[in-house]
Specification:
With 163 residues, the chain is α+β, with helices and mostly antiparallel strands. It has one domain: Gcn5-related N-acetyltransferase (GNAT) (Aminopeptidase, 3-Layer(aba) Sandwich). The chain is built from five helices and eight strands; from the N terminus they run E-H-H-H-E-E-E-H-E-H-E-E-E. Strands 1, 2, 3, 4, 5, 6, 7 and 8 form an eight-stranded mixed β-sheet that branches. Helix 1 packs across helix 3. The longest helix is centred in the N-terminal third of the chain and has 15 residues. It is globular, with a radius of gyration of 15 Å.
Amino acid sequence: MLRIRKAKVEDAVALGIIWKETYQTSYRGYLPDNFLDNIVIPDGNPFFANHIQKDGSVYLCEESGEIKGFLDLLGIDEKEKCLYISAIYVHPRYQKQGIGRKLLEYISEKYKMKASWVEISTLKEGPSVGFYLKCGFVFANKPEGVWKMAGVQLPTIKMVKYL
């Protein structure tokens, strides 16, 4: 049975593996192969470990103790009533099984008293656009942005879902 919970520091390595393998499959063709093929997660994954310790905004989905995906919550603007999501990563083996949707539904329900809409930024022509549309997101009426990584600049768009 799938279960969602807040990530703990000891989950950092598993989250790093999911992040790496998702990047290597989902961003193939967008980012240089040389960059994707050489991603290294440092011992203990200090980035995620520190992030989890600092603000506890990472939620993961697991089944029988195996982490299958996670959602990184960027923050909540209680004045704007907006829940900002940084990213959702589901291990490539478990994509298209409802895990990303389950994470979104969990976060939406958990924060519905503080937020009336959810916003995420994603690649304009990226693989996630279709997923977000299926989950009820629409294109936001906001300026496009640019994501810079590995010497590449990719256009981004903001998508929103009203709760």
